[in-house]
Write a structure and sequence with these properties.
single chain, about 120 residues, mainly alpha, 2 domains
Length: about 120
């Protein structure tokens, strides 16, 4: 009889097979008829006009990254709000520390001028 750790070990050894099997099967069984049109980059069916290499300001990416970080961290506040009546003093302190760190990150981003849309 296998113990639970032996099941974990077997799963660990067999787990690379599950993502690799479809890739290998597609490579072995899939059709191969390459041509120039199939190898071109598909850009939503619209032919590009002019130079397609446009530089964007890095500030746009930083703004989006700050939004994603704060958005994901805000999701972590929902379990705290749902279990607020059952939280211990340690849980309330951890939630307060988490909110403080969020506010500290927001003040840091604001101070660095990341949130200014220019």
């Amino acid at each position: 009889m296998l113990t639970e750790w032996q099941f974990v070990g077997i799963f660990f050894l067999l787990s690379p097979i599950f993502p690799a099997a479809p890739i290998i099967a597609q490579h072995l069984l899939g059709p191969r008829k390459p041509n120039r049109i199939k190898q071109e980059t598909y850009e939503c069916g619209i032919e590009t006009v002019g130079d397609s290499w446009i530089q964007f300001k890095v500030q746009y990416y930083i703004y989006a990254l700050a939004f994603v970080v704060f958005d994901v961290e805000a999701i972590f506040l929902f379990p705290i709000a749902a279990a607020y009546g059952q939280l211990t003093l340690f849980g309330i302190g951890a939630a307060a520390l988490f909110i403080f760190l969020l506010a500290d990150g927001l003040v840091y981003a604001w101070d660095r001028g990341i949130l200014e849309w220019v």
